[in-house]
Amino acid sequence: MKAIPFIPLALGLAGLTPFVWGALTMLIPGLGEWALQQLGGRFVGPFVGLSYGTVILAFMSGVLWGFATKAEGRVAHAGYVLSVIPALWVFFMVGGGPTAAAMNLIAGFLGLLLLDWHFWSFGLAPRWWMHLRVLLTTIVVLCLLPAVF
After folding, report:
1. Can you tell me the distance from the alpha carbon of 64 to that of 117, in angstroms, rounded to the nearest whole number?
2. Where are the chain's structural domains?
3. Per-residue confidence of the chain (149 residues) as pLDDT tens digits?
4. Which keywords belong to this entry (predicted)?
5. Taking the model in full, what pTM does it have?
6. Alpha-carbon separation of residue 42 from 47, 50, 97, 133 (angstroms)
């Protein structure tokens, strides 16, 4: 695998901001109270991470769809079918309160990592893709864990 190019790495790390913010507002009570007063409940605690995680899993379905367009025949057909799983997962499984939603988002992101590997192993994703995805997925999961415990 190659090193991750700067722009995808920088954008990927910047995209973690809502997850990190949500975790910090759960782990630092004073910050959470300040954010609740200044920003409202949607941007505090588990809710910011859950909302953003829902968006990101749906977005990643589109990324995988794009990878599937690089394939042909049965590999392409399988790629298209697999690419919709993250969006369907988040639609059907994220709900039922913050704890259940966070657990299901964690499962969704770990499942997405398996799908990333599948597309990467078929040469449909860039050579550096798994380095980036493992890094980002690890941070996302760590940021969602406080909502579970």
Report:
1. 11
2. 6-148
3. 469 999 999 999 999 999 999 999 999 999 999 999 999 999 999 999 999 999 999 999 999 999 999 999 999 999 999 999 999 999 999 988 999 999 999 999 999 999 999 999 999 999 999 999 999 999 999 999 999 98
4. Membrane, Transmembrane, Transmembrane helix
5. 0.93
6. 6, 10, 14, 26
Structure tokens at 32: 């959470």
C-alpha to C-alpha distance for 133 and 63, rounded to whole angstroms:
12
Q: Which of 36, 23, 124 is nearest to 80 (CA)?
A: 124
State which amino acid sits at residue 12.
G
* The residue count for the chain: 149
Q: How many CA atoms lie within 13 A of 88 on its CB side?
A: 6
- The SS3 call for residue 106 is helix
State how far the alpha carbon of 31 is from the alpha carbons of 22, 37, 52, 56, in Å: 10, 10, 19, 24
User: Taking each helix axis from N to C terminus, what angle separates 45-68 and 73-83, rounded to the nearest 10 degrees?
Assistant: 170
Asked if 42 and 48 count as a contact pair (C-beta separation under 8 A), the reply is yes
Neighbours of 27 (CB within 10 A): 12
Rounded CA-CA distance 23/142 in Å is 8
